[in-house]
Amino acid sequence: MKFTELGIIKPILNALIQEGYVEPTPIQERAIPILLDGKDMIGSAQTGTGKTAAFAIPILQKLSLERLNRPIEKKLRTLVLTPTRELAIQIKDSFRIYGKELSIKCVVVYGGVGQKLQTDALLKKPEILVATPGRLLDLYGQGFLDFSGLDYFVLDEADRMLDMGFIHDVRRIIRLLPTKRQTMLFSATMPKDIRELAASILIDPIRIMVTPVETTVEAIDQQVYYVRKHDKIKLLLEILKDSRIVSALIFTRTKYQANKVAKELMANGIDADAIHGNKSQTARQLALGHFKQKKIRALVATDIAARGLDIEELSHVINYDLPEVPETYIHRIGRTGRAGLSGSAISFCGEEEVGLLFDIEQHIGQAIPEVKDHPFRAIFSPEVKHKVTITQTQDLPKHPVVNIFSPRGRKGGGSRRYR
Ligand code: AMP
C-alpha cells in the first residue's frame, strides 16, 4: 500500500516523501480513509505505531480542502488533547511537518511554563490547537479560547489521561465543545472508564486495533552502561569487539549523530552505514539491503528512519542515545528477539539521560541491569529530578567508583542504583 492510494493530496504527499515515509503504517492505512470520510473513530494504538500521522494527515487534508469551498474563517477548527507536554510538542511538530506545504497554523499549549508566548500565539487565531488539559482549561477560563468553530477533536492517549488523573478535566473540556464534530479517540488500552467515555463522546465510531510491538520486553536481555557523552563512541567500539554481536542496529537521536557514529565505526574497521531522513530512498534501501545480507555489521539509524524497517534475526539493538519517549524504547528493542530468537538490547546512559532511563524503567516496570565492568563507566549524581550532573570530575582511566544518589521524588524502578 502506498500513500498515494489513500487519496492524500499532493502538498501532504510531498511532505511525507521529504520525511522519508515510504508506506503507511497499519494504523494509517486503516484510519486515514475512515477519517477522510468524516467518521468518528476509536483506535487502540500506542505511541510508535504512527498514530499521530494517522489523525494529523486527514485533519490537515480536510482543513485544506474545506478552504476551497468556504471563506477562510479565522477560527479554531481542531483540538488535540494529549496528556504530556512532550507528546503535545511532538504532535504540534508532526502537524507542522506534514502541513509544511499548507499554510495552516498550529499552536501548542501546555502547563509548567509561562503563558505569554502561548496566549500571543492564540491571538493569531490558529486552526489547530494541541493542548494538555490543565493549561487548556486555564486559558479557556481567561477567555483566550473560543470553541464555537470546532469541527475536529482528537483525544490522544486516553488511558494515560485516566492514569494521570486528567479524566475529569477531559470531561469538562468535552462539555465545552460543539456536539456536532468529528471525534477521534486513541488509547493503548481500553479499560472500562475509557470505554464508557468513548461511548459518551463518539457517534457510531469505527474501531481500529493495531497489534502492539510483538515482543514482550521480558524476553529481551537488557543492559545499561553509564557513560559520559564523549566516551560513548569508545564504549561502542569496545562493545563491538565482541564477535557474538553479528549485527547491531544502533539508534541515535539525530541524523548528524547517525552519520558521525557510522563514520567512526568505519574508520575503526567496522562495516557500517547510516540511515536517516536526509538520505535518499535508494541510499536507504541499499544500506538496509546490505545490513540484512550481513554485508555490513552495524546500521546506525534515527527513530524516524527505522520506523517500519522489517529486519529479521537481529541479534542486538544498541541505544547509543536513549529515546525521549519511553514507548520508543519498547519499539526499538522490540526489533530484536523476534519469533523466539534471543535478543539483546544495550543502552548507553549519559549524564543528561538518567531521567529518561528512569522513565523507561517505570514504563516497562522493571529495572535494567547495569554493566559495571567496562573502562568507560561514569558516575552521575542527580541534582534535582531529571537534571543530572557529574560529581566526580577526576578522570579515572579505569573502573571509577560508583556514587549515584536518589533524585528527589523517585522511587521504584531504578532503586538498585539510586540511594
Ligand atoms: P507516532 O506513533 O505517531 O508517535 O509515530 C512514531 C514515529 O514513526 C514517529 O517518529 C513518526 O515520525 C514515524 N512515522 C509515522 N508514520 C510513518 C511512516 N508511514 N513511515 C515512516 N515513519 C513514520
CATH class of the largest domain: Alpha Beta
Q: From the alpha-carbon coordinates, what is the Rg to the nearest angstrom?
A: 23 Å
Largest sheet: 7 strands, parallel
Q: Numbering strands along the chain, what is their spatial order in the largest sheet?
A: 3-4-2-5-6-1-7
Structural class: alpha/beta
Domain count, please report it: 2
Distance between the termini: 52 Å
- Give the averaged pLDDT, no decimals: 84
Helix content: 25-40%
Please tally the β strands and state the result: 15
Under the CATH scheme, the architecture of the largest domain is 3-Layer(aba) Sandwich
Which H/E pattern describes the elements?
Answer: HHEHEHEHEHEHHEHEEHEHEHEHEHEHEE
Bound molecules: adenosine monophosphate
CATH topology of the largest domain: Rossmann fold
| Sequence stretches where pLDDT stays below 50 over 5 or more residues | 382-419
Determine the CATH superfamily of the largest domain.
Answer: P-loop containing nucleotide triphosphate hydrolases
Cα shape: globular
Count of helical segments?
A: 15
Strand content: 15-25%
What topology emerges from the helices and strands here?
Layout: H1 10-19, H2 26-36, E1 41-44, H3 51-69, E2 78-81, H4 85-98, E3 106-109, H5 116-123, E4 128-131, H6 133-141, E5 152-155, H7 158-163, H8 167-176, E6 182-187, H9 192-201, E7 206-209, E8 220-226, H10 232-239, E9 248-251, H11 255-267, E10 272-275, H12 281-292, E11 298-301, H13 303-306, E12 316-319, H14 326-333, E13 343-349, H15 354-364, E14 380-384, E15 387-390
Parallel strand pairs: 1-6, 1-7, 2-4, 2-5, 3-4, 5-6, 8-13, 9-11, 9-12, 10-11, 12-13
Antiparallel strand pairs: 14-15
Helix pairs in contact: 2-3, 3-4, 6-8, 14-15
Bound molecules: adenosine monophosphate (AMP).
Residues 21, 24-25, 28, 47-53, 303-304, 307-308 line the site of adenosine monophosphate (AMP).
